[in-house]
Amino acid sequence: MARAIKNVLLVGGTGNVGSHILAALLRTGLTVTVLTRGSRLFPSGVVVKKVDYENSKSLFEAMQGQDAVVDASFSVENDVSLKLIEAAATSGVYRFITSDFGLDPDLPGVHDLPVFERKKKSYEAVKKKARDTGLTYSLIVCGPFLDLNLSAGFAGIELKGRTATLFNDGKNVIPWTTLEDIGTATAGTLLHPEETSNRPVYIHSVFMSQLQLLDAAKDALGPDGWEISAQAMTPLFQKSMKEVQSGRITPMTFGVQIQYAIATRELARPWDRDDNTLVGLQEWTTEQVRRLIKRLASQ
């Protein structure tokens, strides 16, 4: 029988993902504590604990009495997530949601990409703790963030500039999930601890290709004035791997690896399992995507 989850500790409650998780947790009526290194204002009803992530005792004390820990820190420091997992296991936390929020970690090759090294280490660590202690875990597997990627142009489509760079042929269909849906699904995972124990939780707002997103953008913003090109991703990926091997790493080194992954069916494709209904999500319609695009383009 799964343990009821009432008290939740959120790490990284101010980021793009964490802020939406915080809002969703508060809607459920769970008791929420936010772990922070700085001085930030949070909504009323949120308990705030300031800690030193380098201090194991500080983390251990902060996790006392918590049923679940959600890591939305996205720290570039590999050891932060590992320290959080260790502290959760030693302090009696029941459920740990890792800072993954991306592609399927159980799909061969995904966690072998250098860009996902931190996620791989966290996944391996939390699985080991689940075998050796009373800690259980979940991962939220959501694909790229739909609204954030469209807004930033990282999906290859610049809404305001009306340009599109297709990764390969732009036809690879993958899961995309909005930040709000990720928040809802994270809270829903904690409300269903038995069904989501020790496994990835597979969610999506839509299954769409770049070309389908581009068609939605043309419908939403008008078909005229678009400049469209295609980019072969394998040469860029090979270049990024050489940069990793030589130590000459730039932000685009890892950005290219993510774009290569979402263009490659072996690494990104619609999930075989669908947990949307379980965690309280409904798949979006194409019309909803068009409305999102209109809103993002007007901002």
Structure description:
This protein has 299 residues and is α/β, with parallel strands linked by helices. It contains eleven helices and twelve strands. Strand 5, helix 4 and strand 6 form a beta-alpha-beta unit. The N and C termini lie far apart (47 Å). The mean pLDDT is 95.
What are the defining features of this structure?
Isoflavone reductase family protein CipA, 11 helices, oxidoreductase, alpha/beta, about 40% helix, about 300 residues, 7-stranded parallel β-sheet, 3-stranded mixed β-sheet
Please give a quick description of this structure.
With 299 residues, this protein is of the alpha/beta class.
Structural class, by secondary structure, is alpha/beta
Task: Determine the N-to-C terminus distance.
Answer: 47 Å
Number of strands: 12
Q: How are strands sequenced across the largest beta sheet?
A: 3-2-1-4-5-6-10
Strand content: 15-25%
Q: Count up the helices.
A: 11
Low-confidence stretches: none
Helical content, roughly?
A: 40-55%
Task: Let me know the largest β-sheet.
Answer: 7 strands, parallel
InterPro entries: NAD(P)-bd_dom_sf (IPR036291), NmrA-like (IPR008030), NmrA/Isoflavone_reductase-like (IPR051609), PCBER-like (IPR045312)
Pfam families: NmrA
Protein name: Isoflavone reductase family protein CipA
Domain NmrA-like: 6-220
